[in-house]
Amino acid sequence: RDYHKLMRKRLATLARWIEAEVGPIGYRAFVDSAPVMERALARKAGLGWFGKNAMLLNPKAGSLFFLGELYTDLPLPMDDPFEGEHCGSCSACRTACPTGAIVEDRVVDARACISYLTIELFGAIPERYRKAMGNRVFGCDDCQLVCPYTRFTRATQEADFAPRHDLDRASLLSLFAWGEEEFLEKTAGSPIRRIGYERWLRNLAVGLGNAPWSEAVEAALRARLPYPSDLVREHVRWALARQREKRRALIASS
Ligand code: B12
Ligand code: SF4
Ligand code: SF4
To answer: Which end of the chain is more exposed for a tag (fewer CB within 10 A), N or C?
Structure first.
């Protein structure tokens, strides 16, 4: 159910369909799974342009899709590359990026991107980005959600892409209460699983630190203080300090 695997399976089905038409071919499918220049290939295949948010954008479908490729030894006619770019004077993505990661048009500083901070980074999340992360605990799509071309996005019919375990509306508090077994069970087959339980707690702690003050949030964070991981404890301490700041501010203003 991991999207890489699922999409590679679909590409293999396409390859078998081609084989049924033309006979045996050599092929290999890729979806974010190898050092393949996916966006450059997509532009050369005529699929779209690089938006100011660095995404491959299609004028009729926006950018909320993954890219996949089927390398084959079948001699095929060349497609024409996509010409031009359709961002015009818009720069909504650059303005919306919470951490200012889009440092130039089409250039993302990966070290500041919430996608990197919550999914790829193993160690501590640099403090300068924590407040800006808000409640984003696994990836980020803000620079796509504000894009005017996103209105052309159509919801996928792939059942495996549908939200599971109410993850699209669960509160950070309920997720933070999951034990490791529950985490492994509920994220089975989902890309979330690959960050592991420790980084899951790290990310949630930051999200809870950024939440409005509540006794329940403070109590949940305090309960995690003895958690046997320096990484988690440090993020929990940071989050508790943010919650206490907000509690003091509330008392002072009342
Ligand atoms: C590293 C990586 C990241 C890094 C860095 C992203 C970045 N923008 O640099 C991080 C972890 C931050 C990241 C985040 C995300 N990623 Co990512 N990521 C990748 C990955 C694995 C490699 C990209 C890479 O660095 N390639 C090497 C460089 C040299 O190539 P390139 O970036 O494609 O750039 C080439 C061309 O596109 C072109 N080009 C690109 N920009 C420019 C600018 C100028 C001026 C010029 C002339 C040319 C040019 O020239 C380059 C050299 O040929 C690709 C998968 C892949 N194999 O390509 C996915 C991929 C780019 N990611 C993807 C997605 C979905 C995301 C996220 C939305 C995930 C999320 N929801 O959190 C965010 C979006 C962030 C953003 N705004 O870009 C999709 C994009 C789909 C699309 N429609 O474009 C990809 C293609 C995976 C896939 N198969 O679907 N990602
Ligand atoms: S994914 Fe989020 S953090 Fe990364 S560049 Fe886009 S808006 Fe910025
Ligand atoms: S939000 Fe605007 S500038 Fe950014 S990619 Fe979309 S059209 Fe281009």
So the answer is: C
pLDDT digit of tens for each residue in the chain (254 aa)? 477 888 999 999 999 999 999 999 999 999 998 999 999 999 999 999 999 999 999 999 999 999 999 999 999 999 999 999 999 999 999 999 999 999 999 999 999 999 999 999 999 999 999 999 999 999 999 999 999 999 999 988 888 888 888 888 999 999 999 999 999 999 988 889 999 999 999 999 999 999 999 999 999 999 999 999 999 999 999 999 999 999 999 999 98
| Ligand lying nearest the CA atom of residue 97 | 2
Statement to judge: residues 26 and 148 lie in one domain: no
Shared domain for 42 and 107, answered yes or no, is: no
Q: Is 138 in the pocket of ligand 1 (CB under 6 A)?
A: no
- Nearest-atom number in ligand 2 for the CA of 142 is 7
Q: Which atom of ligand 1 is nearest to the CA of 101?
A: 77
Based on the residue annotation, tell me whether 32 is a catalytic residue of this protein: yes
Q: What SS3 state is found at 238? A: helix
Task: Concatenate the DSSP letters of all residues of 59-71 into one string.
Answer: TTTBS-S---EEE
Q: How far is 196 from 200, CA to CA, in rounded Å?
A: 6
Structural domain that includes position 196:
92-153+166-243
101 and 185 both lie in a single domain: yes
142 within ligand 2 shell (Cβ under 6 A): yes
Look at the chain and report how many structural domains it folds into. 2
CA-CA distances (angstroms) from residue 196 to 116, 128, 186, 229? 15, 23, 12, 13
